[in-house]
Amino acid sequence: MNYILNKENEIYYECEWSSDNAIFLSVNDNRYIITDGRYTLDAKENAKNVEVIESRDLIKKAKELILKHRPKKLIIDPTNWNKKDFTTLSRVVTLQEEPFYSHKKRMIKNENELNIIKTAVKLGAEAFEEFKKEIEVGINEYELSYRFKEKLTNRGTRALSFEPIVAINENAAKPHAEVSEKRLKRGDLLLLDAGIKYKRYCSDRTRTIYVGEEIFMDKRQNFPKEIQKIYDVVLKAQEAAIKAIKPGLPINELDKIARNIIEEAGYGKYFVHSLGHGVGLDIHEWPYVNSKNTTPIQNGMVFTVEPGIYIPGKFGIRIEDMVMIKEDKCVILSEK
C-alpha cells in the first residue's frame, strides 16, 4: 500500500515514533521517516521498521523519493495537508484522496492496543479516586483543576489526554466548560471530565458527583430531589445504550437508544451532543457514536458512552465510561 502521512499520532501508529515535524512515506514496500536534524538521532534510536532520512525540506525530500520509486498512486488524507504541499505532491504522483485514512485504519485495535488502553483507563480511574481526597469546600475551580491534574499526571510523570473539565453547578451546564473563580460549597454538584495517556494511548471518563459530608466517585450518586430525577435519566440512558452494544449493530442505534430515553423523560433538547466517540492515540477518533454513523459495531472497537443533560443556568449532568468490544462482548472499562 502506498500512502503518505504528516500527523504525529498517525506516524506513531506506523513506526512507534513521531515528532511535530515529520513525514511518513510508504511506497512500493519501502517505509521512510523524513524529519529534520533536531529529531534524526531520536528517530533512528526509536522508530521501528523504517529508514530515517534527514532533511530541512520535508516535502522536497518526499517528492524525490516518490520520483525514485514512481508509484502509480499515493493515498493521502486531504484534510491533513495544506494546499501548497498537496499541490506539490500532486505534480509528481496521482494522489488518491481518502479522508480520515489513518483514523479508519486505527478504528479496530489489536490485542496490544486494547491492553494498553485498559491500563490507561485503570490509571485514570485511580486518579479520580485519589483526587476525591483533595476536594475541599471553599476552593475555586482553578484550585480544584490544579489538584486534579496533579493526581491525573502522577506529579508530572504522565500526560493528560486533554485539559480536564472541572465545573460546579451552572458551569456544568456547559459541556466543555472552562474553569472559573466559582467556589465549591457543601451541597454543590461537581462535574469532572478527564483522562490520562499511557504509552500515548488515551483514557476518558466523566463523573458528576454530589459534594456532601462524604464524597463518592461512584456512578450511583445521591442528589437533592430535582437533580436526582435528571441524574437517574442520564444513568438509565447510558446503561441502556451499553446493554445494547453487540457486534453487527449499527453504531447510530446506540445514540438513538440513549436519546429516546432522554427525550421520553422530557429533556431531549438538553442533550446537545452525540453519545460518544472512539478513543485511542487521539482522544477523539473513529468510530464516532452519533446519529449518522451506520458503521456496524466490530470487535476491537473502543469508544465512549457519555449521555448528558444540561439545564442552562442551573446544572449539567454527564456520565461517561469507555467500552471495548472483545470476543463479541462489550467490556466496560473501570465502570465504578
Structure write-up:
- There is one protein chain.
- This protein is α+β, with helices and mostly antiparallel strands and 336 residues long.
- It has helices spanning 8-15, 40-46, 58-69, 83-90, 101-105, 111-132, 141-152, 225-244, 251-264, and strands at residues 3-5, 22-27, 30-35, 51-54, 73-76, 94-97, 165-168, 189-194, 197-198, 201-202, 205-210, 276-278, 285-289, 302-305, 308-311, 315-318, 321-326, 329-333.
- The strands form seven sheets. The protein has a four-stranded mixed sheet, with helices on both faces. The protein has a three-stranded antiparallel sheet with strand order 7-8-11, covered by helices on one side.
- The mean pLDDT is 97.
- It contains nine helices and 18 strands.
Sum up the overall morphology in one term: elongated
Average pLDDT? 97
Q: Specify Rg, calculated over alpha carbons.
A: 22 Å
N to C succession of SSEs: EHEEHEHEHEHHHEEEEEHHEEEEEEE
How are the SSEs ordered, and which strands pair?
Blueprint: E1 3-5, H1 8-15, E2 22-27, E3 30-35, H2 40-46, E4 51-54, H3 58-69, E5 73-76, H4 83-90, E6 94-97, H5 101-105, H6 111-132, H7 141-152, E7 165-168, E8 189-194, E9 197-198, E10 201-202, E11 205-210, H8 225-244, H9 251-264, E12 276-278, E13 285-289, E14 302-305, E15 308-311, E16 315-318, E17 321-326, E18 329-333
Parallel strand pairs: 3-4, 5-6
Antiparallel strand pairs: 1-2, 2-3, 7-8, 8-11, 9-10, 12-13, 14-17, 15-16, 17-18
